[in-house]
Design brief:
The structure is a single chain. It is built from three helices and 21 strands. The protein has 433 residues and is mainly β. The protein has one domain: Beta Barrel (Porin). Helix 1 packs across helix 2.
C-alpha cells in the first residue's frame, strides 16, 4: 500500500460543518450546548488520518451518512446528511450538501430572575459568539410536555473548486437554522504544490455571522468570527510525510450561552445570573503531524496540537492512529486521542458575589479527555453476493465507532458530574459515478 503524498485537503467548509455537529451537553431551559472542541477530534479523526493528493479535484460521488451520539448526560443526537459532488469540467467541480440534526435531551426549565451585570434581559445587544476552535454554539430545543425537548437544525452547504494558476481554489458557503439560532459561513482555501509535488501549501480562511435569539428572552444578539490558517506538507522520504499547521481565530460579540445559569449563594439565599464572558476572544493553535509507512500495507499517524488564547486557556492534544489495508476489500483503523486543558482566567468553582465575568461552562474549566476510535472501510464488488447494496464496485461502506470520556475539575453545572461518557457511531455509503 502506497503512502499518499499529502493529507486530505477536504474543503474548509466541510470541516466547519463537522465542527458544528459537535458533541452536545445538556443545559437548562430545554437546551443543548454544542461542544465544538470535542467534535473537532471526534468526528474529524478520520479526516486527520486519511491522506489523498491535495490538488486533485474530488471524484464524482454521492455520499450518505448517518451519525449518532449518546452520552451519560442523557443527550441523544441523530444527524443524517447527504452530499453530492460533480465535476462540471476538467478544471472545476461543485458540491451540494444537506444535514439535519435531531436532538433529544433530559432538561429542566431555568427561570432567570436576576440581571446580568446590570443589563436588562430584554435589552437588545449586537453581540454573539461561538468560537470555532473550542467554545460554544447555542443549539436549543423545544420542550415537549416540559420533559423531553426536541431540537431540529437544518443545514445547507454549497461549494465550488477550480484549478487556478496550477493550484486548487475552493470556495464554500454554509447556512444553518433552528428555531432560536442561525448561522452563515463563507470559507475558502487555496492549495499549491511545488518541488516536483513534494511540497504542498494550503492557505485558508473562514468568515461566519451568527445570530442568537433564545425564546426565554426578548432579544437577538450577534457574533462575528474570522479564522485564518496556513498548512505546509512535506514528503521527507518514501516512508515519511510531515505536516505543520498554524491557525488564528478572532471572535467578537456575544460569547456566552444564554441558557446557562450562574447561581450565587449568600447564606440561606441564592440568586441566579446569566453568564458574562468577554466580548472578544483571540485563539491560536499550532499542529504538527507525521504519517509513517510502518509496513507494506499499513501506516501510523501522529499528531500534536498546542492551543492558546487570550482567556488564558492552554491545551495540548495528542493523537495516534494506525491504518491497515487487509486486502483490496477491507481497511481497518484504530485511533487514540488525549486532550488536557487549563482553566479560563474568569472560571471559578463558585462565585461569592456578582463579578465582571462569570461562567459555568465546563469547556472553560481545567480538565482532560480521552477518546478511542475504530474504523472499517469495505469496498464493494461481486464478493458481496449476500449484501446487495455492496455488490457494485463503485460503492464503499464506512463505519466509525468512538468512545469518549471527559473529566473536569468542577462538576458540570447541569448534571453535577465531573465525568461525561459518550458513544459516537457513524455509518456512511459512498457511491462514485
Amino acid at each position: 500500500m502506497k503512502i499518499p503524498s499529502t493529507w486530505a485537503s477536504e474543503s474548509t467548509i466541510s470541516i466547519i460543518a463537522r465542527v458544528r455537529w459537535a458533541v452536545p451537553v445538556p443545559r437548562a431551559g430545554g437546551a443543548v450546548v454544542v461542544d465544538r472542541l470535542c467534535l473537532l477530534f471526534t468526528l474529524c479523526l478520520a479526516f486527520l488520518t486519511t491522506p489523498v493528493f491535495s490538488q486533485t479535484l474530488p471524484d464524482n460521488e454521492l455520499q450518505v451518512d448517518l451519525n449518532t451520539y449518546f452520552d451519560s448526560f442523557n443527550v441523544q443526537v441523530i444527524y443524517p446528511s447527504i452530499s453530492l459532488t460533480k465535476r462540471v469540467s476538467e478544471s472545476s467541480s461543485i458540491n451540494l450538501r444537506y444535514l439535519v440534526d435531531l436532538v433529544t435531551a433530559a432538561s429542566i426549565r431555568s427561570n432567570i430572575h436576576s440581571k446580568k451585570s446590570g443589563r436588562s434581559d430584554e435589552e437588545d445587544d449586537d453581540r454573539v459568539g461561538s468560537p470555532k476552535l473550542d467554545a460554544v454554539t447555542a443549539a436549543s430545543s423545544r420542550e415537549r410536555e416540559g420533559y423531553r425537548p426536541d431540537d431540529v437544525r437544518h443545514e445547507l452547504g454549497f461549494g465550488m473548486s477550480q484549478v487556478v494558476g496550477g493550484g486548487l481554489l475552493s470556495v464554500n458557503g454554509l447556512y444553518s437554522k433552528e428555531f432560536d439560532y442561525r448561522s452563515a459561513t463563507v470559507a475558502g482555501t487555496y492549495s499549491y504544490s511545488f518541488a516536483k509535488k513534494n511540497t504542498n501549501v494550503v492557505l485558508g480562511f473562514v468568515r461566519s455571522w451568527d445570530a442568537n435569539y433564545p425564546k426565554i428572552f426578548n432579544w437577538t444578539r450577534h457574533k462575528n468570527d474570522q479564522s485564518y490558517s496556513a498548512t505546509l506538507t512535506q514528503i521527507l522520504s518514501k516512508r515519511l510525510i510531515a505536516q505543520a499547521i498554524f491557525s488564528y481565530d478572532y471572535s467578537h460579540g456575544f460569547l456566552s450561552n444564554p441558557y446557562e445559569v450562574v447561581v450565587i449563594s449568600q447564606g440561606s439565599q441564592s440568586q441566579k445570573f446569566q453568564p458574562v464572558h468577554p466580548e472578544t476572544r483571540t485563539r491560536k493553535a499550532s499542529t504538527v503531524r507525521f504519517n509513517y509507512k510502518s509496513g507494506p500495507a499499513s501506516a501510523v499517524h501522529l499528531s500534536l496540537r498546542y492551543y492558546w488564547d487570550d482567556w488564558q486557556v492552554r491545551s495540548l492534544t495528542t493523537s495516534l492512529g494506525w491504518d491497515k489495508h487487509l486486502n483490496d476489500i477491507t481497511t481497518i483503523g484504530l485511533g487514540f486521542r488525549n486532550y488536557v486543558q487549563s482553566r479560563a482566567f474568569f472560571f471559578k468553582e463558585s462565585y461569592l458575589q456578582p463579578e465582571e465575568f462569570m461562567t459555568v461552562d465546563s469547556k472553560l474549566d481545567r480538565g482532560y479527555s480521552n477518546e478511542v476510535q475504530f474504523k472499517l472501510t469495505l469496498n464493494g464488488g461481486d464478493h458481496f453476493e449476500q449484501v446487495p447494496f455492496l455488490m457494485n464496485e463503485r460503492v464503499q461502506f464506512n463505519l466509525a465507532l468512538n468512545i469518549y470520556h471527559r473529566h473536569t475539575a468542577t462538576p458540570n453545572w447541569f448534571s453535577h458530574s465531573k465525568d461525561l461518557f459518550a458513544f459516537i457511531m457513524s455509518l456512511g455509503i459512498r457511491y462514485r459515478f
